[in-house]
Design brief:
By secondary structure, the chain is an alpha+beta fold. It has one domain (2-100). The protein is 37% helix and 24% strand. The protein is built from three helices and six strands. It has a four-stranded antiparallel sheet with strand order 1-5-4-3. The two termini are 21 Å apart.
Length: 107
């Protein structure tokens, strides 16, 4: 879902709060651009950019809408037809990574 400009996967740490109504928002130091339907994030503090795949871009869009985590998962289940448990675990890891890199902060 997230790669750095060097192509390696970003390491996840457990920083996101557990619970259904937790919300996240993009950091003010992150600029977003679109290319071919995907997001490219530029971290202005570190002058580093990140590329999101299709699913990562969808999650980013839902964060921009202010959708809480449990509703974000509901939407992903509807849109992708995957098992809720798997989507929730993957999305939690993704949000942990975004938090650890400072791209998102708790709202």
């Amino acid at each position: 879902m997230l790669t750095t400009r060097f192509g390696e996967a970003a390491a996840a740490t457990s920083t996101a709060a557990e619970g259904g109504r937790d919300r996240y928002r993009p950091s003010r130091e992150v600029v977003t651009a679109r290319r071919d339907g995907r997001c490219v994030l530029l971290d202005l503090r570190r002058t580093r950019y990140w590329g999101l795949d299709e699913t990562g871009t969808r999650i980013w869009d839902l964060l921009l809408e202010g959708v809480p985590f449990d509703l974000l998962i509901d939407r992903l289940v509807e849109e992708y037809g995957e098992e809720r448990v798997r989507l929730e675990a993957d999305a939690r890891r993704f949000l942990d990574t975004l938090c650890a890199t400072g791209l998102v902060v708790p709202a």
